Amino acid sequence: MSATTTHRTTGRDESGRTPATRASGGRPGIPFGRLLHVELRKLVDTRSGRWLLITIGLVTAAAIALVLAFAERESLTFTTFLTATSTPLMMLLPVLGILTGTSEFSQRTGLVSFTQEPRRLRVVAAKAVAGCIVAVLAVALAVALAAAANGLAMTVKDAPGTWPSSWALVGGVLLAMILSVLQGVAFGLLIVVPGAAIAAFFILPTALTILTASVAWFRSSAPWIDPSQSTAPLLAGSMTGTDWQHLVSSQALWVLLPLVVGSALLVRREIK
User: According to the 3-state scheme, what is the secondary structure of 102-171?
Assistant: First the structure.
């Protein structure tokens, strides 16, 4: 058997190494690291993404200033400042995830992206990982700002400046932020249109919260399906075994389900 035939049957090149992962059609696939880099660049290269990040920064700074100016001296602790810095991020950062999920259609880059990388689920994975990285960086910034504000309050206002006894609170904020951003990515993939995805992201959970508060027989099921209730103990750093069950159940409904359905639709959707 010739060397050429051997290479064809073993799938190795002339140096004996296995070639890079190939996309459909036999072309070498784009490395995942490059896809991730592209998705991270999309978050800051677009006008909407850039202004959203600027808005998040301004709102977070305003929240710290308001707490320093108007909160009671005894309440000026690290926990208070972490709540002040993480709340705007929790509300606005998922919008960045939505813009990530809808970018291939809202910016009309889908034809180029999926021509270069026809394995669309790898692009979805890159979007999800990019969202998680941004969430981690955002929480790190929130913790740093909260610590700085706490130290400033101790110096300027003689505040008690109590620090948390464990890192459960920070870990809870981190996990809640990641889940919130992933929910944004999932809604973006599912709905595609940025405005409609943003509206659904905020309106549907709010409507569910109102429903569970208004209908008596529905209240017992609320922790299992309402993300706002299931994440409350997480943000407080006081999770129990039952709380973890509530979190898994609600996030499967609001994050995993739309992510799976949106990914499946993306694989089958015609890109123009």
Answer: HHHHHCCCHHHHHHHCCCHHHHHHHHHHHHHHHHHHHHHHHHHHHHHHHHHHHHHCCCCCCCCCCCHHHH
CB 202 within 8 A of CB 187: no
Structure tokens at 109: 């880059």
pLDDT digit string (tens) for the chain, length 272 residues: 444 444 444 444 444 443 444 554 455 568 888 889 988 888 887 788 888 888 988 999 999 999 988 888 888 899 999 999 999 899 999 999 998 888 888 667 777 777 788 888 998 999 999 999 999 999 999 999 999 999 899 888 888 878 877 788 899 999 999 999 999 999 999 998 999 999 999 999 999 988 888 887 778 888 899 998 999 999 888 899 999 999 999 999 999 999 999 999 988 887 76
- And the tokens for 242? 């039952």
Say which amino acid occupies 134: V
AA letter at 112 = V
Q: CB neighbours of 120 closer than 8 A, spacing ≥ 6?
A: 114, 263, 266, 267
Strands, DSSP E only, in the chain? none
Q: What is the CA radius of gyration of the chain?
A: 23
Contacts of 200 (CB under 8 A, 6+ apart): 187, 191
